[in-house]
Amino acid sequence: MLDHKDIVEEIKVIVFRLKDEEYGVEVNQVKSIERLEHITRVPRTSYFVKGVINMRGIVTPIVDLRRRFGLEEAVYNETTRVIIVAVGEIEVGLIVDSANDVIDIPINAIEPPPEVVGGIEAVYLRGVAKLDRRLLILLNLDKVLNTDEIKQLENLEA
Amino acid sequence: MEMNQYLDMFIEESKEHIQAINDNLLVLENDPESVDLINEIFRSAHTLKGMAATMGFEDMAALTHEMENVLDQARNHKLVINSDIMDVIFKCVDLLETMLYSIAGGGDGKENVSHVVAMLQAILSGDFSPAAEEETSEVAVAEAVSVPEADEQQKLGNLDEYELTVVEQSQQTGFQAYWIKTSVQDNCILKAARAYMVYDSLDSLGEIIKTTPSVEEIEEEKFEKSFEIVLLTKENIEKVEKTVLNVSEIESVEVLVIDPKKYKEQQKTVKAPEAKPITVQSAEVKEVAAKEEKAAPVNKKPAASKTIRVDIERLDVLMNLFSELVIDRGRLEQLARESGQSALMETVEHMSRISGDLQSIILTMRMVPVEQVFNRFPRMVRDLAKDLNKKINLEIIGAETELDRTVIDEIGDPLVHLLRNSLDHGVESAEARIAAGKPEEGLVQLKAYHGGNHVFIEVKDDGAGINREKVLAKSIERGIVTEQGAANLSNKQIDELLFASGLSTADKISDVSGRGVGLDVVKTKIESLGGAVGIDSTPGAGTTFLIQLPLTLSIISAMLVQVEDEKFAVPLSSIIETAVFTPDEIMHAHQQDVIDFRGRIVPLVSLKSIFNIPDSEESKESDISVVIVRKGDKMAGLVVDSFIGQQEIVLKSLGKYLVNVFAISGATILGDGQVALIIDCNALIK
C-alpha cells in the first residue's frame, strides 16, 4: 500500500516554445490553444498588445509574448499558436512560437527562478522545473498579465 | 434540509407576493369593502407565511400570521377595514420587505416585529381603534350590482374613472358614447353566437370599450337573457338600434346616451357603498395601466402566463453562441454562392431565414415590461403624498412597454428621483392649487412608449412649473453661469440648468428654486445608459421630464467605415450625416484642417493619423469622405477612406485587460468573423 508520503503532488502544465526555451503554464489557467487568425489592431495600446480576436463570440486581447518579455521578434508561421489563458476576470491570448505538449511536473522538481532566465526577468516566473534533461520555465501569469504594470508602461511612453 | 438551493426562489417569489399585497392594498384603500381584494391579499399573505415558515424565517412567519388573522376577520365581515388599519398593514408590508432584503443580502431576516404584532392583536381584540365601529358595517358583495331603476344614468353599469375619461375624451372628438342593453329571445338557441354577432356588428360602427358581463363570460354563455355594451361611435342612436336588431333572434334593444358629467354627479349624490364595488371614488392613487386591461374587452383576461426563470448569464451565453452561428451562416452563404449549387443555396437560404427569426426571439427574451420598475411607484407616491400633505393622483401609462433587462435594472433610481422631484417641488399644495384655479388634486403622470429604436419615459406633473428667475439667480450665485451669459439664455436653457451639478448639490436650493435635488445624478445615470433626458416646463402649467433610452444595450445601429485595411464602427447616435468633399473644399485654420458644413466651421479628424493606421499603399480617390459626428453642440468630421454601410451591431466589451483605450468604446464582430472596433466620438471632439 502506498504511504501518503510517497505520493508526490504534481501539476499539469501546457508546454510551449518561445525563442530557444521551453515554457510552461498551468493547465487550469489555460482555456484553449488556437491557431493564429485575423487580429484586429487596437490603436494606442501597449506595443506588445497585438490587438483583439474573436474567440467564439468573445472579443479577446492578444499579447505577443516575445514582445512582452523584450525578446527579439519572430515572423509568425505555421507553428505559431495562441494560448488563451484566464487569470481572474482577465482573459488574454498569448502568441507563442509553438505549443505541443502537456506534461505532469512533480512539485518538488520546481526550483525558484534565477535572476534572469532566457532573457526574462524573474518577477514573471514562478520557477524552473528540471525534468531529466529538459528545463521548463514556469510563468507567473498574474505578473505577466498585471494591468497596473501596463498602465505604468503607458505612462512612461506618454 | 439544505435550504440554500431554494433561497433564490424564495426571495424572488416573496418579492412578488409582497408586491402583490402592496398593489392590492392600494386598490383596497379606495375600495375598502371589496371582499375579493381582501381575499387576494389574504392568499398572498398566506403563501408568504407558509414559505417563510418552511425556510425557517420565524419573524417573518410570525408577522404574516398576525396579519393573516386580521385579514381573515375582514374577509369574514367581522372587521371593517379603515385607514388606521390600512396604515398598520402597510407597516407590516414594509417590515416584511425589510426582512426580505436582509435575507437577500445574506442576513437572517430577523426584525423586531413585536410593536406591529401588538398593533395587529389590538385590532383583533377590537381596542385598537374605536373608529372601526363607526364605519358602515354594511359589506358589499362584489358581484351584486343593484341598479336603481329610477335614475337613467345610474343604470349605465359601473364605468370606472378610466372609462369615463375615455368617454369624455372621445366626446371632444365628435364621438358619442352609448350604453346598449341587448336582450335575446327566450327560445334563442345559440345565445353566445348571437351575442357575438351583435358585438361584431357594433364593433364595425365604432369602438367597444366595455361589456357586461365580460367578453369571455359572454362567449361562455354566462349571461341570462341580456348583456350590456358601451360603444363609442359617430353614428346616431337609430342606426345603432337598427344594427343590433338586424341580428336575428334579438328580442329587444335599449340604447342610452352616456353623459359623463351627469354620470359623475350621480355617482357623487348616490354614493351608496353597495352600488359600485369597482368604482374608485376620490382616488388618491390609481393605476391606469391595470384598469386598461379591465377596460379593453377585446383582450383576453391576463391569463396566468406560464413563465420560467432564466439566469441572465445563460441568456448572454446563448446570445454569444448565437452570434457564432450568425458568423458561420455568413461563411456558409458565401461558400454556397461560390459553389453555385442551387440545392445548397436554397438550404442555406432557408437556414438564414430561420436563424433570423431565432435571433429576434433571443433578443426579445431579454426584454421585460417596464412595469417591473413602475409597480413600486404607486406605493411610493402614496406615502410621499401623505408625508407632504398633498393630494396627488399618479397615472401610469404604458407599463407594458418592454425594455432590455439591463436597462430596466438601472432606470429605477433616476425615476425615483424625478418622481420625488415632481411631488416635492412640482405639484403645489392643495391651497396653492385652489388659489391658482386648479383642481385640488395634483396629477403626476408616468408614461412609457416606444418610438423607433428607443423607449421614451415621461414624468409629467401639472404643477407650478419651473421658477426660472430663481433658478437663474441661484445659478449666477453658484457661478454656473455668468451674469452676462445668463442674459442670453433661452427659457429652455434656463430649465436645463437644473441638470447642472453645482446647482443640485446644495439642499437649500430645492426650497428656493423649486426644483433641483440631485438632477445631475439623473442625467449622468441616463447618459451612461446611452440615453438622454430633457425638460420642458410651462410656468403655472407644469413640468415634463422626457427620458430617451435605447431599446437594448447590447445592440446598436452603427455606420461601418473603412480606413486603409481596417474597419471601424461609428454609432449612429453620434452621427449627424456623412458627406464627401473635394480637396479644394478643405480649409486651414490654426494648423487644423476644417470644412464648411452648412455655414459652420467643423474641424477634420484624420482617423488614419489619430489611430496610427498603417498605409496599405492602395491608390485612393481624391475626394474626401467625412462622417460628421457630434458631442452636444460641438461637431467634428472624421476622415475615412470609404463608407461600408449602416448595420445593427452587437456590442462587445474589450474585456478587463484592455482598459481605457483611447477613443474606442468597445468592439463588435462582423459577418466575416473579424472584430471591428467601435469609435467613441466623444473622445475625439475637444
Automatic annotation (TrEMBL), chain A:
GO CC, any one term: cytosol
Looking up InterPro entries in the UniProt record yields:
CheW (IPR039315), CheW-like_dom_sf (IPR036061), CheW-lke_dom (IPR002545)
Q: Which domain of life is it from?
A: Bacteria
Which GO biological process categories is it annotated with? chemotaxis; signal transduction
Q: Which Pfam families match?
A: CheW (PF01584)
Gene3D superfamilies reported in the protein's UniProt record: CheA-289, Domain 4, SH3 Domains
Task: Return the PROSITE patterns for the record.
Answer: CHEW (PS50851)
Q: Matching PANTHER family, A to Z?
A: CHEMOTAXIS PROTEIN CHEW, CHEMOTAXIS SENSOR HISTIDINE KINASE-RELATED
Return the protein name. Answer: Chemotaxis protein CheW
UniProtKB/TrEMBL annotation, chain B:
Under which EC number(s) is this enzyme classified? Answer: 2.7.13.3
UniProt GO cellular component terms:
cytoplasm
> What InterPro entries does its record include?
Bact_Chemotaxis_CheA, CheA-like_dim, CheA-like_homodim_sf, CheA-like_P2_sf, CheA_P2-bd, CheW-like_dom_sf, CheW-lke_dom, CheY-binding_CheA
Keyword NADP among record annotations: no
The record's catalysed reaction(s) read: ATP + protein L-histidine = ADP + protein N-phospho-L-histidine
- Keywords from the UniProt entry: ATP-binding, Chemotaxis, Kinase, Nucleotide-binding, Phosphoprotein, Transferase, Two-component regulatory system
Which BP terms from GO are recorded? chemotaxis
One short Pfam name that applies is HATPase_c
Q: Please list the GO terms describing molecular function.
A: ATP binding; phosphorelay sensor kinase activity
The top EC class is transferase
Highest taxon in the source lineage:
Bacteria
Against PANTHER family, the record matches this protein to: CHEMOTAXIS PROTEIN CHEA (PTHR43395:SF1), SENSOR HISTIDINE KINASE CHEA (PTHR43395)
The protein in question is named Chemotaxis protein CheA
Question: Which source organism does the UniProt entry give?
Answer: Aneurinibacillus soli
Protein encoded by which gene: cheA_1
